[in-house]
Amino acid sequence: MEELLEIARKVSDKAEIYSLERTVDSVSFENAKLKDIGSSLQSGISLRIIKEGKLGFAFTRNLIDAKEFVQNALDSLRVEADFDLPVTRDLAQLDTYNPAIESLTNTTIVDECNRICEILAPRTSGQINIHAGRTTSRVRLINSNGTDLSSRSSQYYCHTAIMYPGSYSSISRLVVFKGFEKTPDEHLNFILHTYNKSLEEVSPRGGKMKVLFLPDTMYGLIWRLQSATNGKNIYERKSPVSEKLGEEIFDRQLTIYNDPLNDEMPGARSFDDEGTPCQYFPVVENGVLRNFYYDLHYADKLKASPTGHGFRSAMWGGDAITTKPTPSLAHLFIKPGDKSLPELIESIDRGIIIAGVLGAHSGNIPNGDFSMGLSPGLYVEKGEIVGNVKDAMVAGNIYEVMKNVLAIEDTLYPAMMGTFPAILFDGVSVATKS
Q: Are 152 and 219 in the same domain?
């Protein structure tokens, strides 16, 4: 990498090299039986250069000719960019890698999946699907200003689901750790109890009612907030909250923050994919909008300070090597409340639990609008789950819905887009067949 950087420095004003090595071992069970075991190894290098106010980009999985690789980046000089590359040293030391992950075998993972199946299968008629595996990764970033950073991380994950008959809907739970740990009994009991209680199909009338978003479905709302506070959308004037810093936009019970430094969770980072130091970063604090987030490019455009949110990520995953950094809230949390999940359910006189959604992209995302199918939705009466609802939808706008928080769960769970509790909202519009 050092030789490549030296070549790039000679033909550009600024240069940055990002490298990634990642290994993935995965196991999948379908209908409580082993379906597949897979392994993959990914590595590569990407180069960004800035010359005469233009940004060039190139990537490769197999660096054969360094000069040709740099020329590819020069040939792509198109986008206007004149931001400075950071000089970053003396970062916080995080505990992100568990060496025991190296001795974790697929046999051990298969045995754990079999253990889960043996617990669940005698107690439910539903199809049991499990996806589990381990991931290790190493990132290194160097630039022409002398920054040289690296990070190593490990993760074990296990996603357990019980499927409803004749559908792709399920009750599920995900666990993630830095090393192998068995899925806790409380998670398996939640899946079993919730599925068995909701197995009957019901057709309640629609209308405005209490709606409980489980952690796995909170992304349908958070996606809109991420869009509205993204520096790119602030710059392009697509955000409805661009002039609302310091204003109360949500219920005061809601605090939503980004915390890459929290190394209790896998994937913690002390620097982003551009070398900017990461930090604890409140987005909404007690309902008040506190910050917008930027990468180097949009911070420069808006004459703001970069916030450490330049990550090579895409909405539905993707290959980091082939992706340029963009503003990203990659370590998002919602502050927990003081109610257990059973207490939240018991407080619902009539309402819906959203355990899965379809069409989370529907609606005007930058404006906060959403219209999502329930997959599944669980109907609750007098504090009890009475069945699952088919062909139902929930719709609204986050700047109305998230002002009406009744209570927040006291526990956080890993989910899409972050680590969240379940949240109970009031007065949410639900449409059903009835």
A: no
CA dihedral 312, 355, 130, 219 (to 10 degrees): 0
Which residue spans within 84-147 are E strands per DSSP? 127-143
174, 195, 216 — which closes off a domain? 195
Last residue of a domain, one of 180, 195, 210: 195
Instruction: Find the DSSP H helices in 76-184.
Output: 106-120
Q: Is 23 exposed, middle or buried (0-12, 13-18, 19+ CB in 10 A)?
A: middle
Widest CA span of the chain, in angstroms?
72
State which residues form the domain around 61. Answer: 2-195
In tens digits, the chain (434 residues) has pLDDT values of 899 999 999 999 999 999 999 999 999 999 999 999 999 999 999 999 999 999 999 999 999 999 999 999 999 999 999 899 999 998 989 999 999 999 999 999 999 999 999 999 999 999 999 999 999 999 999 999 999 999 999 999 999 999 999 888 999 999 999 999 999 999 999 999 999 999 999 999 999 999 999 999 999 999 999 999 999 999 999 999 999 999 999 999 999 999 999 999 999 999 999 999 999 999 999 999 999 999 999 999 999 999 999 999 865 566 889 999 999 999 999 999 999 999 999 999 999 999 999 988 888 999 999 999 999 999 999 999 999 998 899 999 999 999 999 999 999 999 999 999 999 999 999 999 87
169 and 211 inside one domain: no
**How many domains are there within the chain?**
2
**Domain CATH number, residue 56:** 3.30.2290.10
Rounded to two decimals, the pTM is 0.95
C-beta separation of 420 from 413 below 8 A: yes
Q: Same domain for 112 and 21? A: yes
Q: At what angle do helices 185-197 and 106-120 cross, to 10 degrees?
A: 40
CA distance 120 to 128: 8
